Amino acid sequence: MVRTAGDRARDIGARVEAFVREEVIPYERDPRRDHHGAPSEELVAELRDLARAQGLMTPHILPDGQHLSQVDTAHVLIRSGLSPLGPIALNTMAPDEGNMYLLGHVAAPHLKERFLAPLLTGAARSAFFMTEPADWGGAGSDPMMMKTTCRKEGEDWIIEGRKAFITGAVGARVGIVMARSQDPQSAGGACMFLVDLPDPAIRILDVPNTIDTSMPGGHATVEIANLRVPADQMLGEAGEGFRYAQVRLAPARLSHCMRWLGSCIRAQELATDYACRREAFGKTLIDHEGVGFLLAQNRIELTQAQLMIEWCARVLDEGGQGTEESSMTKVAVSEALMRIADNCVQVMGGSGVAGTSVVEQIFREVRAFRIYDGPTEVHKWSLARRIKRAWREAQA
Fold this sequence. Notes:
Number of strands: 9
Largest sheet: 7 strands, mixed
Family: Belongs to the acyl-CoA dehydrogenase family.
Cofactor: FAD
Protein name: Acyl-CoA dehydrogenase family protein
CATH topology of the largest domain: Butyryl-CoA Dehydrogenase, subunit A, domain 3
Structural class: alpha+beta
Keywords: FAD, Flavoprotein, Oxidoreductase
Number of domains: 3
Strand content: 5-15%
InterPro entries: Acyl-CoA_dehydrogenase, Acyl-CoA_Oxase/DH_mid-dom, Acyl-CoA_Oxase/DH_mid-dom_sf, AcylCo_DH-like_C, AcylCo_DH/oxidase_C, AcylCoA_DH/ox_N_sf, AcylCoA_DH/oxidase_NM_dom_sf
């Protein structure tokens, strides 16, 4: 049976869409940005106050702490993405959305009260410390290369290492730090720890300028030196960090697809409006096949992307781990959205590459999405391994 969004999700989604279109979009040209182009803390706080006033803060998580189903979440998060500022205002943006999901499923009650509660209200932002610098030989798409370590010392754990491309680290108040255990009982396994930020033991070395500018706090490189964390701030069990990462990663990949689908729906709207108004060579642009066919192809691929998101959401709702399905969805949707955004820029010509149009930003954000949460090539490599393994099992 095909599941569609329930009445509650449709109501929340309609309110979210109205809020983004009427209250958030006017802020897209707001100059309050940091030197990397990301929204300032002042702007984030103002947008979240607007969401609270509408009763829409963290709309995919209900007041009793229950998450909407993945199918229902898709209905809401797609609409939150109609502006790059929408997920920030509504508290559905990465990495917070994925971190809240992880804490909701793994954290002990005392950790939920201390670390999850301020995230749910939008009073705090978070960062997930997993990726490591390439020049250090650390973990990127292959988490088994992780070099950051943790060792037990009395009632504490000591963490040492480096992390890179840590989204939102600047200004975050909650950190989830992943490290490889040196403790004999869980040696080689990964552990996750919850930490209060900022912490003098976590030093920000660099915040590079990146092609995307929608996420507050940038994508920092950090050094972790003698970070002492009480044992009761471990997330889950020692040595189970890689398993917990999968709890987070499959839904987080899907949530990325939802938000950026919303942005590309908006880009399509703007490109369509431009093509239907602008005239050249005696007729409107959309009446020229070279332009109209681009928008027609976009319409097809937007529909395909939404169907694939809904398929993967149903798999997760039915209790599947969703690793393979989320990989396929992430590849298909990110590649399709790149073509859609590129077509929108092409249709709008000079207006499409100007910073005065949000289409230009959406193009940049989607280009980065093809890399974040696993590049296309890594997901295809993983899928190919599964195909080979299935073939071998069939031959046995």
